[in-house]
């Protein structure tokens, strides 16, 4: 049972009606809601004085807060959680929005990476918030690996898989790295890993380096280990292969504290706590909603996250997709959009790995 269930059970019908109307009005307007406004919206069933008494009781329970000296109230994070858990009415996805999602996700190119990028852009546009996509680790067999020097302290690891995906990773090469050592390292990895997946790569490369250390230039051996680490999750963010965040400007437009929002962006760039977030998103079926401090990644910015995992053809968790926005999100609209998008993304990921009808395309 969640922490708000006992409070909700103890509230009478009048308190529930007032609370529901107040939260729905706040989510629509973003402004504190007064007793006179609620009385009019509820058809004068209750007088402003009666509503004020109910609001005071709800404030004493920690459900409402008074941000200013005015009589208006706003829901607290605890109040929003109670509303989401017990009073939120989730409707069906709008047909027009379903069409937008189908076109963006179903009509994307054969590349999984491009499809996920399109899904993120589409979610940001529909929600007018930021979107977050945690992409799956590449499990297609490797076709080719290459290292490209960018600066003395930066290099690019380029990975091409047999299903056509091309992805890049920036990493810090060993000091003094030469072009010949980079070619030697790439040749070694291509000979060792071609046809294998990244999951297999770590143990295979470690064994081959130990066996052929004498044949490999010392710098090349170091580059092999550091370049592979850029792909194998041995960096901040753990097992997360790629993070796509679209629509940052939407968050900045309505932000009351720009410094906190910039901190959120910095945390996202560093993939801080996202591995834990993916675990939380997968804890149960369907959409999860995190409000404010319920997830430490978003606690400082006062943001909410609506997120759903997506699965591959074997029903294994491979990533998650969601919307980041202010705590006064239109949850009733955003939840079905995220849910439908996640299910469609999972189906498309499965089809791109096996082909329509379940035929393996590798």
Structure, briefly:
The protein is an alpha+beta fold. The chain is built from 15 helices and ten strands. It has three domains: 83 residues, Orthogonal Bundle (Arc Repressor Mutant, subunit A), CATH 1.10.10.10; 164 residues, GAF domain (Beta-Lactamase, 2-Layer Sandwich); 91 residues, Enolase-like, N-terminal domain (Enolase-like, domain 1, 2-Layer Sandwich).
Kindly describe this structure.
The chain has helices at 5-10, 13-29, 35-41, 48-60, 77-87, 95-106, 112-127, 179-193, 198-212, 218-232, 248-253, 258-269, 274-281, 296-299, 331-354; strands at residues 64-65, 74-75, 130-135, 142-151, 154-161, 166-171, 242-246, 288-291, 303-311, 317-326. By secondary structure, the chain is α+β, with helices and mostly antiparallel strands. The protein folds into 3 domains: 5-87, Winged helix-like DNA-binding domain superfamily/Winged helix DNA-binding domain (Arc Repressor Mutant, subunit A), CATH 1.10.10.10; 95-137 and 238-358, GAF domain (Beta-Lactamase, 2-Layer Sandwich); 142-232, Enolase-like, domain 1 (2-Layer Sandwich). Strands 7-3-10-9-8 form a 5-stranded antiparallel β-sheet, with helices on both faces. Strands 4-5-6 form a 3-stranded antiparallel β-sheet. Strands 1-2 form a two-stranded antiparallel ribbon. Helix 6 runs antiparallel to helix 7 and helix 6 (95-106) runs parallel beside helix 15. Residues 233-240 and 354-362 have low confidence and may be disordered.
């Amino acid at each position: 049972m969640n922490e708000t269930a006992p409070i909700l059970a103890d509230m009478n019908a009048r308190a529930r009606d007032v609370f529901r109307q107040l939260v729905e009005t706040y989510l629509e307007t973003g402004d504190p809601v007064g007793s006179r406004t609620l009385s009019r919206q509820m058809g004068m069933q209750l007088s402003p004085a009666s509503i004020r008494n109910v609001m005071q009781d709800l404030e004493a329970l920690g459900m409402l807060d008074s941000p200013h000296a005015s009589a208006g109230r706003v829901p607290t994070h605890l109040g929003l959680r109670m509303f989401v858990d017990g009073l939120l009415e989730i409707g069906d996805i709008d047909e027009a929005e379903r069409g937008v999602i189908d076109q963006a996700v179903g009509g994307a190119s054969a590349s999984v990476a491009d499809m996920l990028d399109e899904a993120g852009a589409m979610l940001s546009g529909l929600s007018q918030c930021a979107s977050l996509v945690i992409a799956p680790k590449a499990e297609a067999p490797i076709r080719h690996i290459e290292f490209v020097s960018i600066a003395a302290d930066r290099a690019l690891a380029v990975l091409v898989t047999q299903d056509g995906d091309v992805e890049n990773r920036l990493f810090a090469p060993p000091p003094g790295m030469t072009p010949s050592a980079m070619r030697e390292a790439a040749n070694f990895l291509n000979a060792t890993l071609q046809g294998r997946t990244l999951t297999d790569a770590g143990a295979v490369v470690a064994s081959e380096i130990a066996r052929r250390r004498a044949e490999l230039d010392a710098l090349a051996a170091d580059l092999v280990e550091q370049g592979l680490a850029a792909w194998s999750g041995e960096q901040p963010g753990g097992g997360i292969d790629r993070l796509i965040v679209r629509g940052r400007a939407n968050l900045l437009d309505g932000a009351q504290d720009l410094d906190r929002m910039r901190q959120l962006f910095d945390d996202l760039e560093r993939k801080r706590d996202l591995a834990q977030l993916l675990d939380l998103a997968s804890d149960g079926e369907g959409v999860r909603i995190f409000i404010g401090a319920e997830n430490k990644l978003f606690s400082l910015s006062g943001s909410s996250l609506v997120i759903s995992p997506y699965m591959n053809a074997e029903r294994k968790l491979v990533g998650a997709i969601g919307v980041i926005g202010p705590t006064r999100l239109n949850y009733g609209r955003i939840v079905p959009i995220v849910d439908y998008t996640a299910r469609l993304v999972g189906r498309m990921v499965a089809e791109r790995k096996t082909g329509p009808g379940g035929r393996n395309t590798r």
